[in-house]
Amino acid sequence: MNIHAVPAHELFVEPKAASITVAYGDGIGPEIMEAALRCLSAAGARLSVQEIEIGEKVYEAGQTAGIDAASWDTLRETGVFFKAPITTPQGGGYKSLNVTIRKSLGLFANVRPCAALSPFVPTHHPGMDVVVIRENEEDLYAGIEHRQTDEVYQCLKLVSRPGTERIVRYAFEYARANGRKKVSCFSKDNIMKLTDGLFHAVFNEISSEYPEIEADHWIIDIGTAKLAANPELFDVIVTSNLYGDIISDVAAEISGSVGIAPSANIGESFAMFEAIHGSAPDIAGKGIANPSGLILAGVQMLNHVGQSQVATRLHNAWLKTIEDGIHTADIYSEGQSRIRVGTSGFADALIERLGTLPARLKPVDYGIGSEPVTVPAAPRPAPAEKKLVGVDIFVSWSGQSADDLAHMLKSAGGPDGMDLAMITNRGVKVWPQGLPETFKTDHWRCRYLFEEDGTGIQDVAGLISALAGHGVEVIKTENLYTFDGKAGFSLGQGQ
Length: 495
Ligand code: NAD
What we know:
The chain is an alpha/beta fold. It has helices spanning 29-43, 56-60, 69-78, 97-104, 161-177, 195-207, 220-229, 241-255, 292-304, 308-323, 343-352, 402-411, 457-469, and strands at 18-23, 47-52, 80-83, 109-115, 129-135, 145-147, 153-155, 182-187, 214-219, 236-239, 262-266, 271-275, 326-327, 339-340, 386-396, 418-425, 428-431, 443-450, 473-483, 486-487. The longest helix has 17 residues, at 161-177. The structure holds nicotinamide-adenine-dinucleotide.
């Protein structure tokens, strides 16, 4: 948050209208969107709204992505999407609309602030104020999965240097713009030395460009445990897609409730704002849903479109409403709460409090007009010198003896200069000198290393052809490269 000498609510400047797309969604979506838009408008937001239909009805009309072509045009025209939750129909064949929107519109950063509202919303961590910044496009969520053998399925984890540089830089720029003091990186680079290793290495490189911001790194497992037990240790956390998905829910839950957490999905020319909860079909139509997650997503959106004074006014009125004990059923607790309200009653109470500040919770001040956080373009370094030094041939084979498989592979022949160096099963070395205890599936990785320079991709093709001619079922190959002399592949466990 930017701290300014003059509180923003005393210097209100009429903002320029921002063009946004709104979707009312499914389940509780229409109720909370109506309440949220009423609060935004009463706070002084200047929004020119275009409405689109997404979700259940669109899925049921045969659009497996949950959105139609005309809606894409509207979204791209406005560049800002304020979205209520939708219901993803049960059963196969439907694509997650959120993942589609994030990837199609390049929303690379997912920003989830999680702050305690103690004592008004019970939490074990009254001092917690954490922002989780999650990479949104890569990692295991690239969605590239295959069933390769009868027994084994794979999901590719893709981590790129430009994608990692962008999210890490975004985290530091976010910290700088919001007066945050520390950025922590979470990864699992003790196990995934290449993919998570890249994430950590890029974090170290970029953190040195921001000397005023403290930087540290946590292995994801102990980092998550510490986050759950002592969230006060953390300020901004940056991490990859899957870890970020999990820890942002942990962070939201321990701050008080996932029901009140907002989420911003930010790209270079597009941004989407929503609550993190779903469409809550169990309480839909009852008028009791908490609109807070969407209202706070509205605060993020107002900051994004430069209406920071309105964002400040809205957020402070929301804090005051919570502090006054005016609570929806999901956060109502005897002792702390005073009045139980429904969705619309909560919005009315908030609107009455516009222009006031909370007395016990810390008021916010987002300044007079902030620019969205942007990531400076980073130069792409010259490509490394790449050399093909071998190949991993993945084979489907239902036998159990790695010695037998090695014998079969060797007797298939193939081009000269390719030496069978190792066989692994689920990553564990089983040949040469495997252990009889190692459990084996029908999925074998057979590593060939080139004995001499001059062996090339045509020899890999020759090897596959020789193996196929010998009845070996090759299911996939991975070329083994060095980059500037450094291996671009991992060793087998036990190698
Ligand atoms: P959910 O978040 O909708 O509900 C979980 C529980 O929290 C329910 O008991 C619900 O009543 C309660 N809850 C959620 N939001 C609340 C609110 N604002 N106020 C009060 N109580 C609230 O999760 P779910 O039940 O797993 O999913 C329901 C549907 O939502 C599914 O179709 C799922 O695919 C979808 N979903 C959509 C999004 C999205 O659009 N961003 C996100 C998550 C889930």
